[in-house]
């Protein structure tokens, strides 16, 4: 396909069906019995953690910064370092056109650097039929960090995404040989005929993960933003080349939270107490298989609370580390994890070291002090063009100081 022929208009309607087997791992999160701890979105009265932690600068391996130049990118990009983060893996699902060439990725990176040149932006391509093996080789040489696969119709700006991985065999083989990472949005699109909803979409996708790992055993794969116990188990069952990111907000949220608050709604959606517990336990026992990827996804307030369907995405960028620490403290209070499991070593691994190692980066050059000092999450971030409401607005959080 020539460059002139490459267009990104609204594609023809396709059947949301992927050729995979039924889920052998079971579905978590459906028909769960009522629980006394079904929601917990307030800071516990008993403080289980220390009041401060000296850590290496964090690495956030899944962020959305939106089009740049653009009003949202201009507002949110400078908040990365506010959270104690110096490295981010930037998602390519822009609109009206995703990032599908190396030149586009580098141009996007340059625009982001204009907002904050001190951040290390790891750029990615959007898996699309227009990408050639030669472009993959070019991407590796140019320092592109990964290629993101979006199942068509599963999430924001996924209308150009994958229907089947079969046509991408040569591309995936090239990625495997070049050492370029495949990043997966691990959900099936909702489909009444196939009994797929937001509650089981991730579990339904896991056979695809297993199949890709089997066909391309040396391909480095990231299952992005795990939300289920099934996903945690599936990643652990794979070899060392398969890892997963966990967001800050999924460590706290449950289905009841986002069903009542548009600012808690995202894809994949938060699920059951059992799933949340599995994520917290994965964090404190990660051993490199799980690391931070916030999936911070800013939307203007008009897209979250305006007319029509609400946009999927939770904005966590400025307070990401504080959200993680608060979630761990809540988990200790509920008995999901133990206080002694949350050490500086565990936090340093999950928040910084494991992600850097997987992407073959050097260690953080600077340190941060994360401390409990009465800081409060802003009610909103806004300019004269956009307004974005952060997760847990108005609640107490942790602050970060660069050392």
UniProtKB/TrEMBL annotation:
GO CC terms of this entry: cytoplasm
Pathway stated in the Swiss-Prot or TrEMBL entry: Pyrimidine metabolism; UMP biosynthesis via de novo pathway; (S)-dihydroorotate from bicarbonate: step 3/3
Residues that span the membrane, as ranges: none
Cofactor: Zn(2+)
Enzyme Commission code(s) on record: 3.5.2.3
Keywords from the named record: Hydrolase, Metal-binding, Pyrimidine biosynthesis, Zinc
Alphabetized PROSITE patterns for the sequence: DIHYDROOROTASE_2 (PS00483)
CDD domains: DHOase
One BP term from GO: 'de novo' pyrimidine nucleobase biosynthetic process
Keyword Zinc-finger: no
GO molecular function, one term: metal ion binding
Top-level taxon in the UniProt lineage: Eukaryota
Similarity comment text for this entry: Belongs to the metallo-dependent hydrolases superfamily. DHOase family. Class II DHOase subfamily.
Protein's name in the database: dihydroorotase
């Amino acid at each position: 396909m020539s460059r002139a022929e490459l267009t990104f208009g609204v594609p023809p309607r396709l059947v949301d069906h992927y050729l995979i087997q039924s889920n052998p791992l079971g579905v978590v999160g459906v028909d769960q019995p009522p629980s006394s701890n079904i929601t917990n979105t307030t800071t516990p009265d008993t403080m289980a953690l220390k009041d401060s932690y000296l850590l290496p600068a964090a690495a956030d391996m899944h962020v959305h910064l939106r089009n740049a130049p653009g009003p949202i990118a201009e507002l949110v990009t400078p908040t990365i370092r506010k959270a104690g983060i110096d490295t981010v893996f930037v998602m390519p699902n822009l609109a009206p056109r995703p990032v599908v060439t190396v030149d586009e990725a580098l141009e996007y990176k340059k625009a982001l650097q204009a907002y904050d040149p001190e951040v290390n932006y790891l750029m990615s391509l959007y898996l699309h039929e227009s990408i050639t093996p030669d472009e993959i080789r070019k991407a590796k040489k140019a320092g592109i960090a990964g290629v993101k696969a979006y199942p068509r119709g599963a999430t924001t700006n996924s209308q150009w995404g994958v229907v089947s991985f079969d046509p991408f065999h040569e591309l995936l083989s090239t990625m495997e040989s070049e050492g370029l990472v495949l990043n997966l949005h691990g959900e099936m699109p909702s489909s009444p005929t196939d009994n797929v909803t937001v509650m089981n979409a991730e579990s339904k996708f896991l056979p695809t993960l297993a199949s890709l790992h089997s066909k391309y055993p040396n391909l480095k794969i990231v299952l992005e933003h795990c939300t289920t116990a099934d996903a945690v188990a599936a990643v652990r069952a794979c070899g060392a080349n398969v890892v997963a990111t966990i967001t800050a907000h999924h460590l706290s949220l449950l289905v009841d939270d986002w069903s009542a608050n548009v600012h808690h709604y995202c894809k994949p959606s938060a699920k059951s107490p059992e799933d949340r517990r599995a994520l917290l336990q994965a964090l404190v026992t990660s051993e490199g298989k799980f690391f931070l990827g916030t999936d911070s996804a800013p939307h203007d307030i008009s897209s979250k609370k305006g007319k029509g369907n609400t946009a999927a995405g939770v904005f966590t960028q400025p307070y990401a580390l504080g959200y993680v620490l608060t979630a761990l403290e809540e988990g200790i209070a509920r008995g999901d994890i133990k206080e002694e499991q949350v050490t500086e070593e565990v936090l340093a691994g999950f928040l910084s070291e494991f992600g850097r190692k997987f992407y073959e980066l050097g260690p953080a050059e600077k340190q941060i002090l994360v401390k409990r000092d009465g800081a409060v999450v802003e009610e909103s971030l806004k300019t004269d063009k956009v307004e974005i409401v952060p997760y847990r607005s108005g609640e107490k959080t942790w602050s970060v100081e660069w050392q």
